[in-house]
Here is the input.
Amino acid sequence: MPSPLSSSLPSSWRGALRGVSPRWLALGPLRVPSPGRPLLLCSALLAATAQAQTQPPTSGPAKGTGPFLSASSSASTPGVTTDLRRGTTADVPVTATDSRPAAFELNWTPLKMPTGERTALLGLSYMVAVNEDWGLGPTFYGAAKGNYGGLFTAGFTAQRRWRLTQDWHVATGIYAGAGGGVSSDKVRAGGGLMLRPEISLRGEFGNWYAGVGVTQVRFPSGNIKDTTWGLTLGRMDRLLSFSPADAGLFGRAGDRTGMGFDEIALSAGVEKPRSGSITRDGQSVANRKGKAGADLRQYFGNGGSWWGLEASGAASGGSDGYMEIFANAGQDWGVISPRLRVGGQLSTGLGGGGNLDTGNGWLFRAGPTLRWITPWGPTLRVDGSYLKAPWGHYDSFQVRASLALPLEKGSRVLNTPPLESGTVREQDWYLSMPRFKTFEFKDGSKDSVTGLGIGMARDFSGPWYGVAQAGSAAFGKAGAFSYGMFGLGAKTQRLPGGFRVGAEALVGAAGGGGVAVGGGAVTQGELWAQWEGREPKDRLRIKVGVGQWKALGGSKQSTPMASVNIGWAFGTLGPRAR
Here is the structure.
């Protein structure tokens, strides 16, 4: 019997799934992904439009003959009978039926700036198979060499691959994103749009692949442009999900669904620079600054160990535009009870902006952690840390508090069972283009700015959902302006014609590009309407919204905004609805 994924795709897909060699598989080597998830970025967008039906189980990802089709497309649970009561009780759960190959990639791109100075961009991508040849996903780049710490861009990469032999393939791709960072009259990011076409040769070994290629980095409205070489290191993964039509039903899965994270946390804290910390123009830095951010974690080792990704920015203290992205790893132990835990965390990543001298951008951080897993679901965290920029002139102490919400059922966090059940929740990833009507700049001028970013929404119970957005200016004259916001929304049931309407309120941090935002704290309120296709199982999302954006510090400027978003929806297994 053909898999549910293959039955809805062109003949080349079905042939590949039967073992017939396709032209080439667009995302990664012909290897079986390991049970554990590798380091992921926050997202896979517009991965596919195939619709899933419940089918008999498979034994898991199997080796294929093409790069993208190396994973099985079915992940049903044995002994489940599908009937009209499907998903209403534990006896007839819905199961995750869409399992598609994915890949995580690191890129290193040396770059010559217009002044002749040398830097390099470190890139992180998470891509999901669209078909047997193409992959698509979000990508982040940040400066990691020279004296350009704080140069960040975020966007999306589309990649096409051709197989040469069993263990070699050629990849061509194009990245389009937005951002900027350290700028002057000699180094300009212009409006912020960055393009990066690439062609590379990759060799495969096990679940990994590595390669070298030729690439060009350019900011079309600025003067940063260089054709250079690049290095790539990648590893295979898979994206397991439910149908969006299963949202709210009782479900069961034998592995983590979605991007594989167990919880998302929202944080707020304060940071005190140490003596010797300076700005890029040599001035002493002494003021405390407030920070706001978010992080994703995956737990293992019976819930006592974790790794994750974190992003945060300055929200007060006169360092608007400062941003940092970390990869975290930690360990804690239960005291008094398994739910009250004390431990420590190590972090490394990139940061800069806000005129702080972080040198080439590398940051290291370490400190103690305290975590309480509440009986009703959320987790409360408090941690302290010491942060240092080894190749710059900035170090500090910080304390922060976080509220973490479970993305998987809590028992996965505590003991990682092989089979878990809960309530299916819809999760959406968006390519977002907000347009801010009138920004006030620090030089007194005013202009409109259009951004490019990534958005994520995840259902809670009832009409409520959580939302997060991150992006940068792409068009206008605010090339280094970036933002990160999170908040809460409410939406209606699906309306006739496949439409839905809703509203959301967000808070977060923003700055850079000469925009007058005071300390960096911002808010945004938006009303939106969304088309979700003709059938509830359709995954495409097209959303438009209108609202108001406001900076809370300095001149407290406010401007109308509108947004256009294109997204992809899937179901993930969350905690059981009470």
